[in-house]
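My current task is to audit a protein record that another person submitted. Thanks in advance; the entry in question is below:
***
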Amino acid sequence: MVSILYLFIVFFASVLQAATGFGFSIIATPFLLFLFAPDVAIQVNLFVSILISLLLFIQIRRDVYLPLIKRLVIGSVIGAPIGVILLQLINETVIKISVGTLLLFVTVLLVLPVKMQQTNVRDLTIGGLSGTLTASIGMPGPPLLAYFAGVKMTKEQTRATTLAFFLLIYPISIGLQWITISINRDVWGLVGLALPAVIAGLIVGHFIFKKMNQALFRNVTYILLLVAGVGLIIESIW
């Protein structure tokens, strides 16, 4: 039963990842935490996300906004070690409730809508927040999702730039976890089991992406932010 639920979660999250560039960690992480121990859930999310990002990035690399990627990565290199430290010093439940609440607040601002101007400092800050969240709870997407929606990036740039960033920040986070808490042995088998569901989800998600217009893409972004915020809070309280 757990295996079936796991494969369903991976498939659905892979569809969203291919369609938006964000969906996997936002959808998969809260549900995987219901099925597995925190270290296993987060590490499976990291490894599968790298695989998904790599497979998709090969096709859409031309849409990447390179100047933004550089600043995001610089910020994440600073933020990732902070995330590891926070995970050691602060209760994980407190981190998740705080992030979930912040996401709900940001989503409300975006729906109003509140426009945001892109600046170098904000790029670095968002990169730092994403790095911190990746290393602590395995979920870098929400800050990027909120920021890109606020600065009104196109759906092509949003998806490609996000996937490129994930390809860089996820290995950094895995390396930090390997050093600090090691990689759980169960992770390798679960990643292998997920491969068919990942491939099927990417095919479906890529088809959906081609059918979406910019307005629908933005609405899906808001829904994912709400799901992430509410999911983190509910999972923490549970």
User: Anything to note?
Assistant: The chain is about 85% helix and 0% strand. Residues 163 and 212 are 18 Å apart (CA to CA). Residues 155-180 form the longest helix (26 residues). The chain has a mean pLDDT of 79.
